[in-house]
Amino acid sequence: MKTPAAHTEGKIRGYDDVSLFEQTWLPAGDPRGVVALVHGIGEHSDRYGYLVKRLNDSGFAVCALDNRGHGRSGGVKGHVNTWADYREDLHVFMRYVIAKFPNIPVFLYGHSLGALIVTDYVLFYPDGIYGLIVSGHPLRPTGSAKPILIKIARVLSRYLPEFSLSLGLDDNTLSRDPAVVKAYREDPLVHRRVTARWGTEALAAVDRVRERAGEIRCPLLVLHGGADKINSPEGSRELYEKSSSGDKELFIYPGGYHEPHNDLDREKVASDVIAWLEARSEVK
After folding, report:
1. pTM score of the predicted model
2. pLDDT in tens, the chain (284 residues)
3. Which of 10, 180, 244, 282 lies 20 to 30 Å from 191 when distance is taken between CA atoms?
4. In whole angstroms, how far apart are CA 116 and each of 1, 9, 101, 183, 213?
5. What are the structural domains, with CATH classification, of the chain?
6. Residues designated as active site
């Protein structure tokens, strides 16, 4: 597999001056398109290496952000004061990406938490992208939204917003590839806790996206592992069905776990993503 022609990394300022880590991988020639990548909860942008390489090999540049409170970005771990923190940080990042690659199609790709961030984002900022890719969307989280836990989080969010709670995720449900699970467990940039305020803001964002999914009109690609034990694939089906996009596709990978891009059938997942991008990357 080819190596990228160039890899750069740096820091940009979030909407409220929080330091955000960003990195870009360039293909060997002029990019035919750009994928702006938003990662999941508790992880960071370096965990998408296989997908990045495949995209680079196919002529696409990839720009990725570590969300606030994640990876090499600033902020309290697993915390936002309001969901608008994520939304406005992403707006800053998208303006940065579009300015960096003028006149080149830019696509937005989000996984899990990132999928929730990007679908919420296009409800407020629908212009400027050629398409939206969402993976493992948490529209129907499994096991993490029990009524008693929601009540506790709401009380704590009001009085102790930065009170830390365990995510309670089983590492083995991320991927069927033992090497992926091992790397995740040993990754010093991975964290496993979120705050009470994060929990209530995430639930509100899920409700907002569910209620307003019909406003999503851009080209849409929805990916989900069929055996995802963290977020039910039925949530992705619901998002797909509710979207008003006239150009949308849904891929549910039989037996797949939570991270399609890191699972045993990642070659097919990457090929599906690339084929979708290639069909929509002609410069208008």
Report:
1. 0.94
2. 455 569 999 999 999 999 999 999 999 999 999 999 999 999 999 999 999 999 999 999 999 999 999 999 999 999 999 999 999 999 999 999 999 999 999 999 999 999 999 999 999 999 999 999 999 999 998 855 555 456 666 667 776 778 888 888 899 999 999 999 999 999 999 999 999 899 899 999 999 999 999 999 999 999 999 999 999 999 999 999 999 999 999 999 999 999 999 999 999 999 999 999 999 997 44
3. 10
4. 31, 25, 25, 25, 11
5. 6-278 (3.40.50.1820)
6. 112, 228, 258
